[in-house]
Amino acid sequence: MLVGALVAAASCTALAQTTDLPEPDSAALYRPVQDAATAPAVLPSSPNSNADDDVFLQLRDAVRQNDTNKAAALAARLPNYAIPGYVDYYRLKPRLKDASAPEVMAYLARYQGMAIADRMRNDWLLELGRQGDWANFDREFPLFVLKDDTQVKCYALQSRLAKGENVAADARALLLSPPGYGDGCGGLIAQLAQANQFSQNDLLTQLRLAGEQHATGPAKRIAVLLGASDTRAAQAVDVPALAMARGIGDSRAEHEIYLVAVGRMARTSLPLAKVALDKNTPRLTPDEVALGWASIALAASMKLAPEAYDDWRRTTGAALSNDQAMWKTRIALRHGDWKMVRATIEAMPPILRAENTWTYWLARSLASTADGREAARPLFSRIAEQNSFYGQLAMEELGQLISIPPAAMTPSAAELAQVSANPDLRRALKFFGMRLRFEGTREWNWALRGMSERQLLASAEFARQNNILDRMVNTSERTRTEFDYSQRFPAPHNDLVHPTAQSLNLDKAWVYGLIRQESRFIVDAQSGVGASGLMQVMPATGKFVAAKIGLTDFVHGMLNDLRTNITLGANYMNMVLANADGSQVLATAAYNAGPGRSRTWRATLDQPMEGAIFIESIPFTETRGYVRNVMSNATNYAALFEKKPQSLKARIGTITPRGAAAGLP
């Protein structure tokens, strides 16, 4: 009965004029997939395995709650557990602060080469850094494989600094995100200042970054290093109106605190921020005024305010942060100022400038002039082989369409046997079977290090056989010379997706492109804010759509039913597409950020805009990346389904002001 009702509802719904679509909770913009289940683990089980798994889960929770005694008691109940490295890790982790070096080193030796040993080394390096035990730190740091912890990197620089090395250049390259500094990076900045390796300008740059990224603690600490009031610095970040009312002060540091307050105020009131800056311009140096306008221009850009372009033109001479440089470029793109685009990108730090995004737009700026077209080609070629949004656009600039490369040879039985025996992959399957996706993904990715292309393809096929499609996609995407697009762009549940999309006249390639981005095909994926299933439908959205299509007996638990989830998700796609006058770009943004926001961004247009420029200037970082990925995915799926080359440019098209194309009010 339910199945028939769903199919009938999907086929007959007519919601082309729907405008009262539900808005997601702001937290719903960030949808990490958490602990979704996959196929059962293939590790051999014992009669006591389920009971032991329950104890292990309790042990994990006890450590998360920092309950040392309970953790020790639970660990003692698992003397022969299938993954002893984790039991011993959870036994040692809660008391790492007081553990002896021989005890930790014995653990590392026992589990050498395993992902959990690298995790323990990461934890221990943090503790050694806090203690200033540089002898042990220096011995262990070269053995740390992933080296993906910013605080550990800061402690490593502290260790070098303690030996008299000049590490200022490395510190400047590392210290870009104050909210993640913690004790390690905060201590590094203080020591650099004390050693005269960080100048006042370095500290002022850090203060600006802290204000820009709303990092109150780092702002206070840096203010003290500058000889300024930490209270005033905190007020500038958190209560800018109060900080501005107190006046500008006399010192360079006090001027910077005032400019931080101006930048923070601009996030809520551009007019008040501009009045405050204009009022005190006579007391500021030209460089300080330019910095003030850069803060205001950044806030105006993130609102897509019409004055943002003119604000950026007042920033000549300002040392821009990475965010400011990127937004100055985006606003220049929106205004067709290719000269500003080129100048701003060329002034970016080399690492930022080399990203695909800015490589593409720099090439476009060069190609905008007759004498720059040849200079643009090597830049387009540099990224054209990468199967990404900007790689695909670069291909089209070189006169090529997006097509599916020839498939690699299917992994042999011997190749599959080799990867299926990999102990890291087997541990990953164990964790996936226990709904511990974080641990499973860590073990899986650890296993992929150093694999050949053939081994990667075999591992992806092994993931497919165990119905872990997100790992299949992720693993297959790592190959560079051999490709299997059936792994990279799978189309599971076609018996449900195809008729649902067909009944709604939806582009199936777009539907699959969105599913791939939303859940990576994890059927019972759950986000931290309640989004559920393959299409990550929020409860309020599910209730709204169910009412619209006549699903009167809908309850929240039905979101986990595959057929219901696809039906509700596809119908919602149909609604937002109609609301966006058929633009997949606008509809994709609406699916992620809410129809109201998508309409607001469209309302900033007074003339048609190239789709790629509109996408690049979406104010929400998460939504910007989401739309890029969905549209790139959809282009690949269309090439797979239709078996002919595709154009991403044609798919994203041009974004018009509301009513411009269809004569709507």
Architecture overview:
The protein is an all-alpha fold. Among the domains are: 199-349, Bacterial muramidases (70-kda Soluble Lytic Transglycosylase, domain 1, Alpha Horseshoe), CATH 1.25.20; 355-400, no CATH class; 490-655, Lysozyme. It contains 39 helices and 2 strands. It has a two-stranded antiparallel sheet. The two termini are 41 Å apart. 46% of the residues are buried. Mean pLDDT is 92; it is low at 1-19, 25-47 and 660-665.
List the helices and strands and how they pair.
Blueprint: H1 2-12, H2 49-64, H3 68-76, H4 84-92, H5 101-110, H6 115-131, H7 134-140, H8 150-162, H9 168-174, H10 182-194, H11 200-212, H12 216-225, H13 230-238, H14 240-245, H15 252-266, H16 270-280, H17 286-302, H18 308-312, H19 322-334, H20 338-346, H21 350-353, H22 356-367, H23 373-384, H24 389-397, H25 413-420, H26 423-433, H27 437-448, H28 453-465, H29 469-476, H30 485-488, H31 494-503, H32 508-519, H33 539-549, H34 562-579, H35 584-593, H36 595-603, E1 609-610, H37 611-616, H38 621-642, H39 648-652, E2 654-655
Antiparallel strand pairs: 1-2
- Main sheet characteristics: 2 strands, antiparallel
Spatial strand sequence of the major β-sheet: 1-2
* CA-based gyration radius: 27 Å
Fraction in beta strands:
under 5%
Instruction: Bin the helical content.
Output: 55-70%
Give a count of the beta strands, DSSP E runs of length 2 or more.
2
What is the CATH architecture annotation of the domain at 490-655?
Answer: Orthogonal Bundle
The unreliable regions are 1-19, 25-47, 660-665
CATH fold assignment of the domain at 490-655: Lysozyme
Q: Given the C-alpha coordinates, what overall shape results?
A: globular
Number of helices: 39
- Arithmetic mean pLDDT: 92
